[in-house]
Design goal:
mainly beta; Immunoglobulin-like; five-stranded antiparallel beta sheet; four-stranded antiparallel beta sheet; 15 strands
């Protein structure tokens, strides 16, 4: 279903504040007929422009242009995820034209609509919804760089240990090494390992440089850790 069809379907359905808007609309139209020479304000029916959506690994930021009302009437905002049912993200209207949605689910499409909220005759009134803004959440964010890498040389081997990553979607670690005289670090482990330690077998007397990378479940790799050099006995 296209967005225009979803909007027509939504307009035929109930949405929060719809009855109040219809009631106030009928009152304003009645007063206009009774007082044709007097302008009855329309501020309650204003709605924001389409929101802008951006995200990082922790939250989705939804922002929209503020609604200005000529007579200075305070305007707040209610944010929704359209659909069946409509999900209210702001049970209490927010004063600032932005909101942080912290419910991240990679691979999902998220759509948002915003409505202006004001008060007419002590009745809370929500405007029609803004155009929807949608984004599909893609995990392109690398986990933190591993820290605390230390190594100990032994007979024909070097044992490594490092501090566990704090990434919530960690898949494991890649161990990188360069055996002198080589200087380019290449993976020793073909796939991420879950442990924070590794024993590498190398020729006795070899001088070996190591670093570790964290890898998340989306395949994003961190920057290599600070490198260390050890010699196998």
């Amino acid at each position: 279903m296209g967005r225009s069809e979803r909007r027509r379907t939504r307009d035929q359905q109930w949405w929060p504040g719809k009855e109040r808007v219809n009631r106030i609309d009928a009152r304003i139209q009645r007063e206009r007929r009774q007082r044709p020479g007097q302008q009855i304000p329309d501020e309650w029916s204003r709605w924001p422009s389409a929101p802008q959506v951006s995200y990082d690994e922790t939250s989705i930021t939804v922002a929209w242009p503020a609604v200005s009302v000529a007579d200075g009437t305070p305007v707040a905002y209610a944010l929704y995820r359209p659909g069946t049912p409509i999900v209210a993200l702001t049970p209490t209207p927010v004063a600032e034209p932005s909101f942080a949605d912290r419910a991240i689910a990679w691979g999902e499409e998220r759509c948002y609509e915003v409505r202006a909220v004001t008060t007419v005759d002590r009745v809370r009134v929500e405007s029609a919804a803004s155009p929807s803004a949608c984004v599909t959440l893609r995990d392109t964010f690398a986990p933190p760089q591993p820290e605390g890498l230390v190594g100990v040389g032994s007979d024909g081997a070097v044992s490594l240990i490092w501090t566990a990553s704090t990434a919530s979607d960690l898949a494991g670690y890649l161990v990188l090494r360069a055996v002198a005289p080589a200087t380019e670090l290449v993976p020793v482990t073909p796939a991420p390992i879950p442990d924070t330690n590794f024993r590498d077998t190398v020729p006795s007397g070899a001088r070996v440089t190591y670093a570790v990378q964290a890898v998340d479940k989306a395949g994003n790799r961190s920057r290599p850790s600070a490198s260390i050099a050890e010699t196998a006995r």
